[in-house]
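Narrative of accomplishments. A recurring question from our advisory board has been how the design workflow behaves on a single, concrete structure rather than in aggregate. To address it, we present the structure tokens for one chain from the evaluation set, followed by the sequence designed for it. No filtering or post-editing was applied between the two.
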């Protein structure tokens, strides 16, 4: 069974008002596989997780230098490149990006969204506190993580002290990297 054992978030400051990127995420699956550069995007319908991808490249027919398929000319020899050389998808649209990792069904996509989006909100809350330090770039070490550890947040009903729903940590916090998340209680 596939499960997410750790999520790390690096908040992104938008360069302009139209920039939908809010954060980068790193996810660890089954305490053994790390997926980096997931993006937390704010779209028209709310926040969602975008999987990592890269720009597709091809070679210049004149100098054999790699260029992005959307480039109009070669980076090295400046030769004009064919604008229709990009591969096409099933609908006939040019395919400029290729997915590196992607969920193959809705349940897998929901698993990523259900882990990354609450972790993003938690990181936003932590960033407002004095002494905040982002842990995104710290090395991942799972020698102390028990097999049964699960990263799970639930949307709880308002309690007497808050006026809206809040995210609540559910699960074991025996390992040190999860102790910080175990104290989570945040208003949305």
């Amino acid at each position: 069974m596939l499960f997410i054992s750790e999520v790390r978030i690096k908040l992104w400051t938008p360069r302009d008002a139209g920039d939908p990127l809010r954060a980068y995420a790193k996810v660890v699956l089954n305490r053994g596989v790390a997926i980096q550069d997931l993006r937390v995007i704010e779209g028209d319908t709310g926040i969602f997780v975008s999987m990592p991808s890269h720009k597709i490249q091809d070679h210049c027919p004149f100098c054999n230098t790699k260029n992005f398929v959307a480039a109009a000319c070669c980076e090295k020899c400046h030769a004009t490149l064919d604008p229709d050389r990009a591969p096409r998808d099933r609908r006939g649209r040019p395919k400029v990006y290729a997915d590196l990792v992607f969920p193959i069904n809705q349940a897998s996509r929901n698993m990523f969204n259900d882990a990354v989006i609450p972790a993003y909100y938690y990181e936003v809350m932590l960033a407002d506190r004095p002494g905040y330090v982002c842990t995104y770039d710290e090395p991942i070490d799972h020698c102390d993580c028990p097999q049964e550890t699960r990263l799970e947040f639930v949307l709880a009903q308002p309690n007497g002290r808050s006026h809206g729903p809040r995210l609540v940590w559910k699960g074991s916090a025996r390992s040190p990297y999860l102790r910080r998340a175990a104290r989570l209680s945040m208003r949305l």
